[in-house]
Amino acid sequence: MKSSKAAQSSVEMGHLSIPAAEEIIENALNELAYSQDPGLVRALQFLAPPGYQAIVELCSESGRSKRRNAPVDAWSPEEDELRIYFERTDEAEAAPRPARPVRTVSAPTVEEEEDDQQALLPADMDTRVKELCTALAEAERGGHAFIALKWFRDSFLPRKAFRWNLHPEARQAVLAEAIQRGVVMTSKIANPKTPAYPTTTIRLNRAEAGIPEETQRFHPVAVQGEPLASTMEEERGEE
Amino acid sequence: MNFYFLEATAFAKLFVQEAGSEALIALLEPVEDNRKLIAASTPLEVYTAIRRRERAGDIAEKAAAQALDSLRSESARTVQQPLNPAVLESALQLIDRARLHWPDALQLGAAEAARDMFQSTEIVFVSASERLRKAAGAEGFKTIDPVKDLEAPEKKSEPVADTEAKPLAEE
After folding, report:
1. Considering only residues 32 to 61 of chain B, which have any Cβ-Cβ distance to chain A shorter than 8 Å?
2. A24: which of A7, B22, B38, B69 fits an S-S bond (Cβ 3.0–4.6 Å)?
């Protein structure tokens, strides 16, 4: 079955960025949901609760997130912290959602306050939407079977070095704008883990976004003689 | 919008160029990966067939490597129906109802299990095997033959979501 492996375990740890390390941990936590290890079963309801996606942040001792462009060496297991929280994987959000629970105790910096103001009055919304579309195009190239809205907004998008994407409200506002403009399309797929809550997926509307289609994906190779189907039916057994 | 269950004989057309390949690619290119379904055994079956034809000299070594590489990546992007007890039970019941080989029953059983999972959506059974299309039609699936249904001139311009295929159960 498909699985997102954007942050490959083979990457040298010393060259990892903070976001890449966070993604590795997130993937590992999400993969835990499939573990059959009886020793883990009791812990799984906390580490990988069904219907939730783990979001990981490497933080300083004060609770502030590490800078997105910092190397992973900037985080120390002795002095720093690792924050894990969970997001439901079931909501459709074109409308702004409630703010996340307060997770930091430190006072906001000037940079954060500026970003808050921009979230309220985004004068550069066109640029933001364009950046979001570029990020979505990248996510679509990543080999994921589908792009869950919540994963893209809360996990993938924060890893980009945009000026506006640190705050959940700002990300939601830009995504909602992109959906309203028709450059991002939404749909729903059934979620086998939580059948009552289908997953909202998003897809780039390349024509509207002005992003060209990818080159042809399939390149079948030449075969001589009978169709491959004949070979397969022969293997299965002729009538 | 439809889901497409790509039975192995159809899925193979994405990796080797033969009748129906271009039409099937044209059908599937705009379809989200999460709407393309295969049985978990399908990559192995296609892999085996490609290797066999390579050994027979029908596919060049380099081309075979390219096809197998593409098969691996596309299989990972496509929704795979695990061969779980529900699929095996469906396959057993199919054997009771129709003259099928067990690999055929496994494919169709996987499609039935997927249909049970995605109850609110139509699953179209795509296969190059007439035997399997007949059986699938008898089980209530819409079916598509990549050669006959997609390459016919009048079908080529139809939108993906509106593709209709007639069950062949009565043949």
Report:
1. 32-35, 40, 45-46, 48-50, 52-53, 56-60
2. A7
Whole-angstrom distance, CA of residue A82 vs CA of residue B134: 56
Q: How far apart are CA B73 and CA A193, in angstroms?
A: 25
Rounded Cα distance, A109 and A139, in Å: 30
Q: Per the domain annotation, does B158 fall within a domain?
A: yes
**B13 three-state secondary structure:** helix
Q: Can you tell me the ipTM of this complex?
A: 0.81
CB A223 within 8 A of CB B18: yes
Q: Output helix, strand, coil percentages for chain A, rounded to the nearest 5.
A: 40, 15, 45
For chain B, 171 residues long, the average pLDDT of each consecutive 10-residue run is 93 96 89 87 97 97 95 85 95 95 96 90 94 96 93 47 35 30
> Is there a domain that residue B130 lies in?
yes
Contact A192 B117 (CB under 8 A): yes
Non-local (6+) Cβ contacts of A12 within 8 A are: none
Q: What is the rounded distance in angstroms from the CA atom of residue A50 to the CA atom of residue A92?
A: 18
DSSP per-residue string spanning B16-63: EE-TTHHHHHHHHTTS-GGGEEEETTHHHHHHHHHHHHHHTTSS-HHH
Residue B170 lies in a domain: no
Geometric angle at alpha carbon A159, from A184 and A106, rounded to 5°: 120
B8 inside 8 A of chain A by CB:
yes
Q: What is the pTM of this model?
A: 0.51
CA distance A7 to chain B (A): 16
CB proximity B99 to A under 8 Å? yes
At residue B113, the 3 state secondary structure works out as helix
Phi and psi torsions of B30, nearest 5°: -85, 0
Domain ranges of chain A: 7-88, 91-212
Q: Per the CB < 8 Å rule, is B15 touching A221? A: yes
